[in-house]
Write a structure and sequence with these properties.
This protein is α+β, with helices and mostly antiparallel strands and 512 residues long. It has 14 helices and 11 strands. Among the domains are: 271-346, Helix Hairpins, CATH 1.10.287.130; 351-511, 2-Layer Sandwich (Heat Shock Protein 90), CATH 3.30.565.10. 57% of the residues lie in helices and 13% in strands. The strands form 3 sheets. The chain has a 5-stranded mixed beta sheet with strand order 6-8-9-11-10. The relative contact order is 0.07.
């Protein structure tokens, strides 16, 4: 896939995802606002109903005490309780209703009786008499009621809010009104004056209102129709309001989860696309370079074999030695290229097909050192070994594990700007075999140290421009060590050196 096509695809994916996120965010915001507005309306309606009930209760209680609450049977006036007043008022209403009822006989046989006790003989005179009497009774009752209301209004200005409102009953009124309006959240309430000073609060541990968000404090004036200097306000706080709104949005959680999943899939898809693009480019470069690298040793070996077959070429010992050396060197070079192809093939498999055998690791490393020492000494370097592991028998794939040790030693030689001092050690720790390969090379920076085992990642070599590779060596090393049930770590400092430590289980630990 071309890079331009990839970027166009990515841009369209980003635009689609951003649009989806914007739509979802707007949908969530609108729904949250609707739920909060509905909640606020219910609370304000509840507070208004509560204040109206408090006001009505005060009026009924005062009128009941004034008109019906005095018991004249004794020498002292005794105020009846509010419940007694309500019960008495209900009985009076029931009695009046009974008196107004007509029996079936009365309905079927209406009778008209004219009383003459009041001295009136005609219907007109009787009707006029009853009307005048009703007007007198109504006028007297109205006068009494007006006087009671006047005294009540006069006393209101002198009373404190705590005398007018029963704070304990207020809690029950609030609970009932909130439930009737569909609000079942815990709440706190307080009574404050017009300066905001708390007159009463339902709970001693209730914090000041400033500690809550302004949109979570609901206020309603008590006795809103009165013109008084002693204004008081009912304030209600819902500490779990935000949780209520969030829980009301649970139907949107699947949508949000879906958007999140799409975002994750998008990110993973972008990463995979770029990795595949990089892998494809590296493979193409690898094939091109490998083709060139394979042609050179093959042509050289072919030329050397032709020289051996050419009768015109002298077969002196010097010439034969030279030709054999050329064939040997080019064969090694060809072998290295084959190893690179092998490494590439390994990464194409999820799991390598290792052929595990019981191998003495100390002996294996000694053979590798013996074969590799010539390269080091030719460049003025030195290899020091300290193979002190007493239990060095392990189940390993001899070919791949040899490549692991060889790659680490070869890297130490390639990334050295001075005569190489290479130290190789083995030792045991808790039925594990540890192998360390330490050099005095150019070192690895902390930024590169985190990525040295990534496939195709190459560390900057500074002034060493002759170092070639494809970033597969250390990735191959880590993969093989991991598949041997071991792990590898690296320590390094710039211009001081690098140390790789491999830990693999011994045969005894492997069997356990």
């Amino acid at each position: 896939m071309r890079r331009t096509t990839i970027w166009i695809l990515i841009i369209f994916m980003i635009l689609t995802l951003v649009g989806l996120i914007v739509v979802q965010a707007r949908y969530v915001r609108v729904n949250t606002g609707m739920i909060e507005n509905q909640f606020n309306d219910n609370v304000q309606r509840s507070l208004y109903q509560t204040v109206s009930l408090v006001e009505e209760n005060e009026a009924l209680e005062y009128l009941g005490q004034t008109l019906e609450g005095v018991d004249y049977t004794g020498n002292k006036n005794k105020l009846l309780s509010v419940d007694a007043q309500k019960l008495k008022l209900k009985n009076n209403i029931d009695s009046m209703a009974e008196n107004l009822k007509l029996t079936p006989d009365q309905l079927n046989r209406p009778q008209i009786r004219l009383s003459t006790s009041h001295g009136k003989a005609t219907i007109e005179e009787t009707s006029q008499y009853l009307q005048d009497k009703f007007r007198q009774n109504f006028s007297r009752s109205k006068t009494i009621l007006d006087q009671a209301v006047f005294r009540w209004m006069k006393e209101i200005d002198e009373k404190d809010i705590s005398e007018r409102v029963n704070f304990e009953e207020l809690n029950g009124i609030l609970e009932n009104v909130f439930i009737n309006n569909g609000i079942k959240l815990p709440f706190f309430y307080s009574i404050v004056d017009k300066q905001g000073k708390i007159i009463y609060k339902c709970h001693k541990d209730l914090p000041e209102d400033d500690s809550y968000a302004p949109n979570n404090v609901y206020t309603q004036r008590l006795f809103p129709q009165e013109e008084s200097n002693k204004k008081a306000y009912l304030q209600v706080i819902f500490p779990t309001k935000q949780n209520y709104i969030f829980n009301s949005m649970t139907l949107l959680l699947p949508s949000l989860a879906l958007v999140t999943l799409i975002l994750c899939i998008f990110v993973v898809a972008i990463i995979i696309i770029f990795r595949q693009k990089q892998l494809n480019n590296m493979k193409n470069d690898f094939v091109n370079n490998m083709t060139h690298e394979l042609k050179t040793p093959i042509s050289t070996i072919s030329l050397a074999s032709q020289m051996l077959q050419d009768p015109g070429v002298g077969k002196t010992p010097e010439i034969l030695k030279h030709i054999s050396n050329v064939i040997r060197d080019e064969t090694k070079r060809l072998s290295l290229q084959v190893e690179k192809v092998l490494q590439m093939a390994i990464f194409e498999k999820d799991k390598s097909m290792l052929k595990l055998n019981e191998i003495r690791i100390n002996s294996l490393i000694s053979d590798i050192i013996s074969n590799f020492s010539l390269k080091v000494t030719n460049k003025g370097g030195k290899i020091t070994s300290n193979l002190r592991a007493t239990s060095d028998l392990a189940l390993v794939d001899e070919v791949h594990f040899t490549n692991v040790i060889f790659n680490l030693m070869d890297n130490a030689l390639k990334y050295s700007d001075k005569p190489l001092l290479l130290t190789i050690e083995t030792w045991n720790e808790k039925d594990n075999l540890l192998i360390s390969i330490e050099d005095n090379g150019i070192g690895i920076s902390k930024e590169d140290l985190k990525r040295v085992f990534e496939k195709f990642y190459r560390v900057s070599t500074g002034n060493l421009h002759n170092v070639k590779g494809f970033g597969l060596g250390l990735a191959y090393v880590k993969k093989i060590v991991t598949e041997h049930k071991g792990f590898i770590k690296v320590e390094s400092e710039i211009n001081i050196g690098t140390k790789f430590t491999i830990t693999i289980p011994t045969l005894k630990n492997y069997e356990l």
